[in-house]
Each structure stands twice: as C-alpha cells, then as structure tokens.
Amino acid sequence: MSKYVKFTHERARAEVTPFDRFAELNACRRKLLQLRLIGVDSNGTSFGNLSVRDGATRNFYITGSATGGVPDLTRADWTKVVAYDFERNWVRYEGSTVPSSESLTHAAIYKSNAMAGAVIHCHDSTLWTAILNQAPTSSKAVGYGTPEVAYEIMRLFKVSDLQSRKILVMAGHEGGVVTFGGDLEEAFAVLIHERKESSPCVDGAFHKRTPA
Ligand SMILES: [Zn+2]
Questions:
Q1: According to a count of CB atoms within 10 Å of the terminal CB, is the N or C end of the chain lower?
Q2: Tens of pLDDT along the chain (212 residues)?
C-alpha cells in the first residue's frame, strides 16, 4: 500500500521566532561533528539533524536541510516547524532555509512523547549494526523522510521500550539512529551511553561520561 510521498514544505514567514537555546544547540552540534555522527558523506551529501521542542507545543526548531557539515550554524540555518501533516509529508515552517527532510521523524517523537524536548538524528554505522533489532528498530521496508517512518516511530512507542530507552534504529536507512531526551544534553547522553555499551573498545573519552 505504501507509495512514495515527496516531502513538501510551505514557508509561513522568513523570520524565525527567536529562541534562547541557540548556543546550546550549536555546542551539541559541535560535539556530534567531532564524533562524525553528523557531517557530509563521501558523496557530498550532508547527514544528521537536531531539533528542540518549542515549550510545551508540538512545534519545534530544527536544523535546515543540507546543513549537516556546517561547523557553526547561524540563526539563518535554523527553521521552526509550526504545522505538519504526516500523511502528506508536509510541513509549514518559519525561516529563510528549508527544514530538514527528516522533520516528520522528529515530529513523530514529539507527538508520541510529551516529555521529549529534543531529538538527534545521526549516522553511526558501528552503533547501527550493533543495536539493529536489539534496540527499537523501524521496519527495513520504510525509507527515511517518508510518512511511513513517522508511522513506524509512533508504532514503536506502543510496541517497544522506546519510551524508556530513548533510542531507535532505522533499519531502512543505513547508519540512521535517532535519540531523544528531555533536552539536548539528555538526547546526546543517550547516544553516548549506547555507543559505549555497544562498543567497549572505543576511545576512552566515551567512558568518562556518566551513563544516561
Ligand atoms: Zn539520516
């Protein structure tokens, strides 16, 4: 039944409503870039995106499309998603740049878990291989940036321990891992904790962090 629905977007306004977590967002991004969990792949395609929920709403600030490899984002590289429709794979946003095509993946987490305040989507093939089908895993049949991924995530909240484990593996998107938390710090800590658990021989720096 699944048919490809292209991601579409509509700009509400060119100015993003100001938000005060900007420095925190860039600090988290820098750590992810250093670990090469976001960036640009050998084909020149950027990967990885971060978002932060706007207060208690279902709206969220998310990195713009194709910004994965940018060292420090300016305010112009962020967008705010202010409305969305899973079925149509559509978002309305504020900003001068287009939101990540994986915005609906983030939206599915905020919709499913009221406590989720931040989401990280990164690529880590080692972690992906280690926890595929061990951690909550979305169906291999669904590609990234599709309505089906969003539905899969909502399903995983019901049938797996995603709510407490706060990490999922995208079987149909090689290397694709998503973590979330009450804030970016927690979403990042979940990621580091899983990396440490799944690969005991990694750089000692990972062992210094307190597990999530
Ligand atoms: Zn991805």
A1: N
A2: 456 788 999 999 999 988 888 888 999 999 999 999 999 988 888 999 999 999 999 999 999 998 888 888 998 899 999 999 999 999 999 999 999 999 999 999 999 999 999 999 999 999 999 999 999 999 999 978 888 999 999 999 999 999 999 999 999 999 999 999 999 999 999 999 999 998 765 554 444 444 44
Whole-number Å distance, alpha carbon 4 to ligand 1 midpoint, is: 17
From CA 43, how far away is CA 173, in angstroms rounded?
16
Assign a CATH topology to domain 8-208: L-fuculose-1-phosphate Aldolase (3.40.225)
DSSP H or E stretch at residue 128: helix 125-131
Q: pTM of this prediction?
A: 0.91
Ligand 1 centre to CA of 13 (Å) is 26
* Enclosing H/E stretch for 187: helix 184-198
Q: CA–CA separation, 169 vs 140, rounded Å?
A: 10
Which tokens belong to 124?
Answer: 């880590």
Instruction: Give the Cα separation of 123 and 199 in Å (integer).
Output: 16
* Domain boundaries defined on the chain: 8-208
